[in-house]
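Appendix B, Record 12. Input sequence as logged:
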Amino acid sequence: MQKLLKLIFICFLIFSINDSVYAQVKKLSVDDQLLQDSIYKSNKKKVLNFSIKEFDELFFEYFNRKNDPNVLLTKTEFYSYTVQIATFSDRLAHLYPDQKEVAATNKEKWLSESYEEYLQYKASQKK
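Logged structural output:
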């Protein structure tokens, strides 16, 4: 009986922690998710074949354009960068199987990047 109570208590803790972690994941609008899905499908094969050099070029181009106060990325451009960077995590997970969890977390982070938050960042740059 005592073991059963411990099991129920542990399950309760796991589910409550899982719910609070899940609640912290940012949700994108349906339109943004559809755009991301479209970009993912059209670029997946290309990105999975990127060399590290090609990925580095994409990554630095994104950060240079994102941080340039004179450049405002369109929604499609923004998600094109973030989805391609997220997709490269799949390649890293395949190349380094012991890093699958890190790659999955990284992919989730990049796919949760929001264009609206980017626009807020750009507005704060001009102040």
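Residues 28-125 form one domain.
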